[in-house]
Amino acid sequence: MKRSSKWIFEILLAVIALAFLSPVYIMVVNSFKNRAELYENALALPSTLSFQYYSKAMEKMSYLTAFGNSLFVTVVSVVIVVVLASMTAWMLVRTDNKLSKVIFLILVSTMLIPFQTLMMPLMQVMDWIRSNLHIPMLNTHGGLIYMNVGFHASMAVFLYHGFIKSVPIALEEAATLDGCSKFGVFWRIVFPMLKTITITIAILDVIAIWNDYLLPSLTLSDKGLRTIPLSTFYFFGEFTIVWNLAMAGLTLTIIPVVIFYFFAQKYIIKGIAAGAVK
Amino acid sequence: MSKRKDKAWYALFTVPLLFVFTTVVIIPFVIGIGYSFVKWDGIPANPKVFVGFDNFVQLFQDDRFIASSWNTVQFTVLSLIAVNVFGLLLSLLVTTKLRVSNAARTLFFMPNLIGGLILGYIWQFIFTDAFKLIGQKTGLGSIFFNWLLDPQFALYAMVIVFTWQMAGYTMIIYIAGIQGIPDDMIEAAKVDGANMWQRLTRIIFPLLMPSFTICFFLTLSGAFKMFDVNLSLTKGGPNNSTEMFAMNIFNEIFGYGHYGLGQAKAIVFFLVVAILTLTQVAITKRKEVQM
Fold it and tell me: Which GO terms describe its cellular component (chain B) (predicted)?
């Protein structure tokens, strides 16, 4: 490419990228404006940098509680998915019999079921467990985590399965000969080798679970248990929309995501590509 | 090692996950099929009356369900085109060796992380207020007005938000595909005098078929099942004109308390999603070429 045309391309791409982010710009600038200023020009920069709407939105959304809830539910769900799915996938690959094939086939084929097909009967099942077995599955974080694990299990097993098939078995056999139990072989030898695919799965599930609205909305009714998407929904539902306050609230919900993206960006982009190709 | 011991290990490693999976996915799926044959209002004390295929007959006479199907089809087709055209364009842009490429790639992907519900709210403001303002300032009031008040434009608004969310995701997959194409293949074509367009259509696109398969699958199933953007951007309005499949099912069950009918819709929904995505994958897979 010629030098001058290269510069034109540089500028063109930069402009496109900035235009792409303009909705975020509009959100942030209006979170600082008072009502009059907002309606005067929604696109202009704010005249003053006042954080009053942020503190108000924070209070109305119970932001810190919601953030803590989301963090807890997401982290615990993802850790359990990773632990259980990697173990299951490894056994399914290394025990090459009919049962393994059937289990794998069932797991994969259920990935086609949309959540809407399961949501009502799922609530019935959980309600049945609550009233007959007295295990609190509804309106608890534990129940939500349990359901998250169930829904993300098949995808994780599928990705691990594909990855483990390409891992040579020699190391595992050597460790077994040395007297290592299956448990030891898996956690000491195999699991460390699954690092790349584990990161991919963790990232995909963090994004999905952090942003999920529908399942938490069906299971959680207590205000104190709400996750960020849930509290955002109620925040928008409870008041007639005051846009500057709303924009401050939305900015708040995006900040953790941006920070996460800033640190894990390299892994996220690699992980998405790797996850898709499988 | 003894056979029995092996079996015990097998169970120890697989049963925990399979137990959770069975209670969360398999059992609800099976009893969900059962629910689609009964009439029930969701109140435990009230009887579940077996009505056979009545629910399935009824849902095909439900105008609002038919309308939501048509909305979903329109939305899905438009999204499929828009998401992939933009995703592909962005991927071609950022794989040129420019200094801003990496930063641009990072920015293009970001909306995907934000989550549909939040994106819908941000854009609600843009379509209602920012658009109005741009219309007034530029005099282009026929393009920039509150799209969410017009049935057809509200649907386009959803396509825009969904595209904004998904284009970066497909971009990442297309980038992976483009980087998998050997440089010497492109160089050879250049030496043979192929222009940019010929290189794209004769070499790059055919070799990208696996990426197309994945991206089409992701956008097709994503658009078809879309719920949260629908909820936060338009709530299905104006006048149910943007109510999609997923929202119609949700409203039928939890809004109107028609548990049986809603579940029958949910089963039909599953069948349509399964048939549609499997057909698409089969078609695009057949077009994949071996290098």
Answer: plasma membrane
| Overall pTM surpassing 0.90 (yes/no) | yes
Amino acid identity for residue A144 in this structure: L
Identify the CA nearest to B127 among candidates B109, B107, B143: B143
Q: How many domains does chain B have?
A: 1
* Interface touch B176/A14, C-beta < 8 Å: no
Interface contact A170, partner B, CB < 8 A: no
Tell me the residue range of the domain where A161 lies. Answer: 49-277
Q: Which residues of A touch B94 (CB under 8 A)?
A: 13
A246-to-A56, A101, A236, B213 alpha-carbon distances in Å = 10, 50, 7, 39
- Per residue in B172-203, pLDDT (tens digit) is 999 999 988 888 888 888 888 888 888 888 88
Quote the ipTM score.
0.91
Sign of CA dihedral A103, A105, A106, A110: positive
CATH number, domain of A167, equals 1.10.3720.10
Expressed as residue numbers, the domain containing B156 is 63-244+266-286
The identity of residue B272, as a single letter, is V
Total number of domains in chain A: 2
pLDDT, one tens digit per residue, over A56-101 is 999 999 999 999 999 999 999 999 999 999 999 999 999 989 999 9
Residue A19 forms contact with B (CB below 8 Å): no
* Any domain includes A268: yes
Query: Residues B157, B162, B168, B170: is their CA dihedral positive or negative?
Result: negative
